[in-house]
Amino acid sequence: MTGPEQESSPQPEAPNQSAWQTPPPGPAKDPGPAPGIAYADLGIRIGAYIVDAIIAGILFAVVGLIILGVVASISGLAGALIGLVFLLAFNVAFSAIYFIYGWTVLRASPGQKVLGLETVNAGDGKTLTQPQAIRRWLFLFGPFALLSAFQLVVGNALGTLFGLASLGYMLYLLYTTYQDPKRQGFHDHQAETVVVRRAA
Questions:
Q1: Is the predicted pLDDT of residue 192 greater than 50, yes or no?
Q2: Which of 25, 67, 85, 102 is 20 to 30 Å from 31 at the Cα level?
Q3: CA Rg, the chain, in Å?
């Protein structure tokens, strides 16, 4: 009689892998976080922001004229200061609503939608939560709003320095976005977000 046949032990199944993952680093170009998805390059992101600036600029101009019309009845320096304060406050609030609503409801700002981009959670590609979107807006636009307010208060002398600080921060965001392999700028890292597009 032959010896008892040995039963082959069952092989463990491979763990389910999420489609949203980053390929291992190597010489090949990173195809993106998931099949058919690629990290959005800096150029197309700048293009989306220009589209957003045009859309938001038109809306802001319309509402801004209404605000100026309301405060125009207050004459003199007081009226001018009230008008500037209202415009600054409205600009900040409008920017926050415009982008935070877009990222949390549409998964993209209107400008990003036009160019086929989405701003999503870097870990799993899900829609941003509201706190996450607020954090991204604060690091992306908050410093500019704060520096603009300082410029308004201090006038021309120190205002130039605050203007240069705004330019420096903008260049820093562009640099950190450009040099990152996932195109995550400083603001993206702080909010754990990433901008993606459908691969061609």
A1: yes
A2: 102
A3: 24
